[in-house]
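User: My collaborator sent over this chain with a note saying "see what the structure looks like." That's all I know about it. Can you take a look?
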Amino acid sequence: MTVSLAWTLEQVTGSADVFAALEDAVRLWAMSSGLSEDHVYFAEQDVRRHENEARMLVRLGDFIPRGVGRLDHDYDVTRPAGQEIEYSAVEVGELMVSLQAFAPKTIGTGTTARGLISKCMVTLGLPQYRDALNAAGLGVLEKLPVQRLPQVVAGKWEDVALLEVRCSLTLKVTDRTGYIGTVLYDIETTPDGET
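Assistant: Without extra context I'll predict from the sequence alone. Here is the result:
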């Protein structure tokens, strides 16, 4: 007897999509400071830095898995043939998100780095920013105190402030497959009539 089983495994979503959505959500949150998108950049980006203007640097730390991942499955007969069964590998861990603001003014009226960072810290409690982060798989665990780190650049003081937020991050990769659609077999009979 020969049995031929055929099934397909289709990747629906992957961790690359998760990090793109995460970057978008964190950028949106950083822009709650009042800075425009071209003044908010990630540490690894090659962009014009606006050295003499207020700006914000975003860093996403390393993903640290917590515990053991899990495998979830779901069956939905309304999905197309060959995709009725959905498997999801889920890993939960932590990620540090850092926002570092720079401003030419250290005190007085106008934009200071501490003012930009403090606004981001407070807006984290607003639903539109918290929901965007949650939709990207990021949950806020702890906001660390705002640190003020002024520095001298080219003989002038530059205001620098840092906010670090410890977050949970859920990574999920989903694949779909279906039940066996066709089984092919050959029946061989022996001379004495046995199969």
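A starting point for your reply to your collaborator: Residues 10-177 form a domain with the STM4215-like fold (CATH 3.30.2000).
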